[in-house]
Amino acid sequence: MSVLTLRLAGPLQSWGVGSRHNIRTTLPYPSKSGIVGLLAAACGIPRDGSPSDTTNVTLADLAALRLAVRADQPGELLVDYHTVSGASHAPAEPAQQRLPTADDGRLQAKDSTKITRRHYLSDATFTAYLEGDLDLLTTVAHAVRRPRFPLFLGRRSCPPSKPLFLGIEHQTDLDHALRTTPWQTTGHAIARHHAQGQVSSVRLDTVTEDPTGTDVLPDQPLASAPPFRHQYTERPIRHGHITLPLSPHDTAHDPFDLLG
């Protein structure tokens, strides 16, 4: 098997699983549904799941890839306070723009504003590893570098700040790829790591899709779901960590360092 490695870095990321309505949470790491959606956008697969007009890749192909994620820079949780007008949900149906009340009535349109709280990961960087057939991964890698549709890190308001593609390894597996990819973080974060006296190694959390895993996530896309009615099932995962050796001078220039 081969492994495609992606870097998921940006000012904000949000990877919700079953997160809808007024409070929209995020996992502390990227979800498979979110990454499959990102790759589908790159390959030109429409939201209804119909075949792409630019590649032969299908949603079923992407969903079948095995995933691992490494938290190179976990980031911090940010909760954004929103108010949303009821008119945004049904602009062509005035009756539906008035929110319901406890006594089965309806508020006036001017009072029909909902409060929502949306959770994001701020200043986070992850590496994602997708294991599968080499020909498929090569096609996906080409699409990631020249995407058909815009790419986002979980939500439309979260564009990546760096190129996603890191490389393809041949005849390897997820565990090997997790351990051989250099630490993907900013020079500022590395300097801070050294300042804390941790100059020889860094310990990073990992989440790996594994049939023998002892935990499950409900984020496995079902390619057979009807158009515009996305459905998901559970997939087994295992949580772990790896330790990467570092050089005392292991730093890299990054123009965004001052924002870290």
Automatic annotation (TrEMBL):
The keyword Transcription does not apply. InterPro entries: CRISPR-assoc_prot_Cas5, CRISPR-assoc_prot_Cas5_N, CRISPR-assoc_prot_CasD. Keywords: Antiviral defense. The keyword Ribonucleoprotein does not apply. Residues 89-108 are annotated as: Disordered. Gene3D superfamilies: 3.30.70.2660. It comes from the Bacteria. This is Type I-E CRISPR-associated protein Cas5/CasD. It comes from Streptomyces flavidovirens. The lineage of its organism: Bacteria, Bacillati, Actinomycetota, Actinomycetes, Kitasatosporales.
